[in-house]
Amino acid sequence: MTPMVSIRPLPTAVRCLRTQRLVRPCPAAALGGRRGFATAAHVQETGAKYDGAAVPSVAKASLQQRKEAIRNAKPFSEFLTDSFNREHDYLRISITERCNLRCLYCMPEEGVPLSPAAHMLTTPEIFYLSSLFVSQGVTKIRLTGGEPTVRRDIVPLMQSIGSLRSHGLRELALTTNGISLHRKLDAMVEAGLTGVNLSLDTLDPFQFEIMTRRKGFDAVMKSIDRILEMKKLGANIKLKVNCVVMRGLNERDIIPFVELGREKDIEVRFIEYMPFGGNKWSQGKMISFQEMLDIIRVKYPALRQVPGHKNDTSKTFEVPGFVGKVGFISSMTNDFCGTCNRLRITSDGNLKVCLHGNDEVSLRDLLRKDNQGEPIDQEAFERIKKIEMDRRDGLLSDETVLGWGQREQELLQVIGAAVKRKAEKHADMGDLANMQNRPMILIGG
Hints:
The longest helix is centred in the last third of the chain and has 17 residues, at 404-420. The two termini are 22 Å apart. Strand 3, helix 6 and strand 4 form a beta-alpha-beta unit. Helices cover 34% and strands 12% of the residues. The chain has 15 helices and twelve strands. Strands 7-8-9-6-5-4-3-2-1-10-11-12 form a twelve-stranded mixed beta sheet. It is globular. Helix 5 (154-162) runs parallel beside helix 6 and helix 6 runs parallel beside helix 8. It has helices spanning 11-18, 40-46, 56-71, 123-135, 154-162, 181-191, 205-212, 217-232, 254-260, 289-299, 364-367, 378-392, 404-420, 429-434, 440-443, and strands at 90-94, 140-144, 171-176, 195-199, 238-245, 267-272, 304-305, 315-318, 325-329, 342-345, 350-352, 361-362. It is of the alpha/beta class. Its EC number is 4.1.99.22. Pfam families: Mob_synth_C, Radical_SAM.
């Protein structure tokens, strides 16, 4: 078990990277605000327009600053840009292989062999990799699993990653089955949690046990209710409920899920059943996005699509008069590969550039290279920081044991090479069914 530790940002390592980064700054940075945001106070100080007024004495200087920022803007990080010019600013990190459910589509009935504890990324390693990716322009990090809430130190881990907001991180999200979320949610929101994707495939408690091979429906609903309660109290947290639809099991839940949003601020997203190792996928079990759409329109013919973001994985719809929304993730019949901006790190430290690809590269082994291949715990992490600070201050040469400077560059080169190898799109449905890939639980949802 990783000890519960509180970690502050590693400004020296981030600063070292920031002097070399190829990140496009937002003009708002010239106003002194966070990347991509200009605060009212900074706008007033610089003389930019705010509430229809301006401060004439510095307005010209402010305009000149903004023009200068735009003129000097550099491309997005080359390391995170693939050969099809897709910019990857969204990182998903699996923090455990363990789960308290056994969902049919996620893992084989017999379960999966768990990796030795020493193979799992430690909290300092996860924080360091998060810092590295944020330094290159990642603005959103999602923690996944397994079931991430079973990791005992998840709250301190989220606190450490949340501290990266001052370096450009804008969103810290979680994918969870909701079984134990309600017990930790308040602390997570305080740590910086901004979004929850909650997996729930049926609104029938009996069917829930069939699909998950476990009890827990009431606990999941308790977590949903707690999120909605916190939203009403002003918490800035998005809620999306993910439902994998499988023919013969839960297609009758489609309409009840849509109606869940009649008065609740929930976006329910229906996901086409996808093939992964051991989940006995077949095309006959899959219900396509178009078929799900047709089922809903029989009862709600006014269902209409709403505009989305270019990087959305989900096509979003709404029923007029409903508070919530409905989404469809159509990975099998209508992929969104052309605008993919996601990278994944598995809980054992492998970088995976495509959910449906089987190519992986180890970041963990390179990260531990000068630690005799041993996990980097808090003590080792503090030692590394001290060595890097001494190197920065000129007390040591660049040839330092455990010095981050060289290690950062090696990691970035490996990451960049993997991103450049990313295919234009994943394989077609028939080919995916025959490809070797990890079970979903060992990838990270």
